[in-house]
Amino acid sequence: MPLDRTQAIPLYLQLHQAILEQVVSTQAAPGDRLPTERELQERFGVSRATVRSALDLLERQGYVVRSQGVGTVVARAKIEPNISHLTSFSEDLEAKGMRPGSATLEVALVPPPARAMTHFVLSDLDKVWFVKRLRFADGQPVGIHELYIPPTLEFAPQALQTMPSYYRLLHERHGIEPSRAVEAFTAKTADADEAALLDLDVGAALLAIERVTYDALERVLEYVVLRYRADHYEYKVELRRKG
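Predicted structure:
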């Protein structure tokens, strides 16, 4: 549809909405190409600056990805965990209609790191189960999970090796449900190992999270370090003004 130049709405916002409606109406899939900038100019009779402003906004909102030599393509849907609820990785993806997956990279009894020691009640000689997993969304690697389990919780290594979800295993093996968790968020760049696992360039942006999870009796259930591709994850928080 042609843009309405009699409206007070800027042309780039009208074009932004027109492109977004086209993506939705055609049920475009991630990776599908959008028309080129020149094609959009000719189709809507607008300047190159207007086209670029519309595409810039779409990219900032996460609807499209633009790259040299490829053009503009529909972005993969971002994983948006509900920050006000305690959910597992699998639950987050299933809520978005995405298929969770996992590859266990390591299961071992190890001395816990210092930050885990502050939450577990241990002696200097104690070891804990460590499980390192690569997590997938619709078959694409999106995260690395490094899980440390307190020695008060016993598991067979084979169960840890094959578990689809730690929270489900907790319920099945011990009848325990997580009640609350405390998370700390930081930003980091991918090192060589992380980049190789997540199919990224070294130095790409990652979202790093440390989580400590408790049951209803305030017993620690896990200390876990999570690293996610920043281009696939988005956290939203609703803020309300006091008073």
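Summary: Helices lie at 11-25, 37-44, 48-60, 89-95, 114-117, 157-162, 166-174, 192-198.
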